[in-house]
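Researcher: Next entry: Peptidase S15 (Solimonas fluminis).
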Amino acid sequence: MMKSLLRASALAVALSLAACGGSSESVDEAAGSAGAKWFDYERAEEYAGMQQMPEQKVEMSDGVKLSVKVALPTDAEGNVVDFPLPVILTQTGYNKSLATVIPAFPTFNSFFVQRGYAHVAVDVRGTGVSEGDWEAFSEREQLDYKEIMDWVAVQPWSNGKVGTWGPSFMGITQIFTAAHQHPAHKTVFAIVPMGDAYRDIVFSGGQVNAGFIPLWMLLVTGLGVLPAEADPSTLLVSLDHALDAVLKFQVPTIVEAVTGADGRNYDSDFWRTRSPIEVADRVKIPTFIVGGLNDIFQRGEPMLYEVIKRNTTTKLLVGPWQHLGASTGAGLPLDGVPDLNHIALMWFDKYLKGLNTGAERVPNVTQYLTGEERYSIAGDWPHPKARAERWYLRGDRGLTQEQPAADEGSNVTLPVVSLLNLCSLSTSQWTAGLLGLVPLPCLQGNNNLNELPLIGAVTYTTEPMEQDYYINGPIQADLWISSLATDAGIAARITSVAPNGSSTELTNGILTASMRLVDESRSRKIGGVMIQPWHPYTEESRQPLKSGEPVLASVEIFPTSTVIKKGHSLRIAISTADFPHGLPPVGDLLNQLLGVMTIRSDAEHPSSIVLPVVPVAAIEAPR
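Model: Predicted structure:
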């Protein structure tokens, strides 16, 4: 039994798809600049094993009981430690009790427990075997996070110092928990957390994420149906509970989003309540954030870092990952960056045990650079040396830093054929990396298929670079477009084109043209140039197109860190759809399918992209 538990914990992080206040410190401004380097941190196990204690039910203030399990270290004879320990808390929507019947299921991390920590796992309300109704990070659920912290802090196995840990769902709960500023909560280690629910994932560009959202809701419900504690008698109860949740919250939410009923397709208090970025400024405890260059929360992870760093020591690590890989830190250690368990142990030993691990001195920002295919470090994000650089789309489908002439032609892309671009890096990304497991080049990043005339993408490409070209941060595409319909979808992919013509997708963005209004006061600028537009996405901000009349639409393309190597070219590929990443609500979709989108590129309508460019000399190795 003990060997099975150890194997379960060792394999736990590998299945992290399921994972889909204290005193504060001043930010170490020097970390990440000259002198700050990565180092590996490790110490031997203190205990021989780990044991899960029996399930407990903890009653919340409204009478709902949440299911809680605790894992404690054991000595060589199998005796459970009977004195208070620092605690690592994980709050999940994925039925923590399945670790009892599925040894490899990710619930407890024996690496931490055997080094002197208690690990507590909680099913949030309405999930797993907890009571109540699940409504995805609702206000009531967020209050539960505080009340669970109240309970954990005073248990006999707790010394009153609590850190939070876990990926995806379990990363999101950490930010909301830290916002309560509970005195027992000392630190956060959030792996792939969401920032802005509406813009990051559910309605990127004003379009429903048809790839991930149904998959995620099915995952939460499906895992809750499975019998826990090896007790088949719980199956009927679980089925009834799951069906009730589906009918009360999940189906109505999806239907309202797809149809646009009750304004669910617009940004609102509903989505802001579920957005950690809205409360991130209340986080006052040391926080470590892990993200991925093509993660489903690619946009929000660095933005959470930006907000939280103002109040406390905060670090950001962004690897070459989609959601599955990011959840586990796949490929680490590499280039001097340790594996995630070692980094987290360094973090917890510093902020829960008070050991001098040097955690506060590691680089502030660590990012993988595609093109270079290695990690680099920096003192901040966006990169402090980034400058805005504009490239213009030309009538001959070139991409230059010279503005177009008055008589340059336009290009068109067809809405219907653009829906054929299913095989893409974007499809893999927005199914949390699941489809990326299929060995097709177009799901691994090769974008040539989606650039064929049949598919409908229009490409604009630079001449081969005369020297390496380093891009780090968000990208903005300022596109002059027109349509015969009252709306249009805009999908933009940034790619790197090798000398042999192979086009590799780096990042992407989408926008519903009628939702193009920009609030410049909330948009990001570098040197006075807007580089990350902020769209209100409200009903009041909607601006329908007029047939044939050109309008300027600023598309937010999610951040990347890449080097376009000497001899390679930079490309933007523009089409009208990026399904299943984006599916316009039914009314918008019908409007978009009726028209042909024209991309203007003349002196009066100079379409362009704005890039955050950093000197190649600023690339700094992690060690």
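Model: Note for the record: Confidence is low (pLDDT under 50) at residues 1-27.
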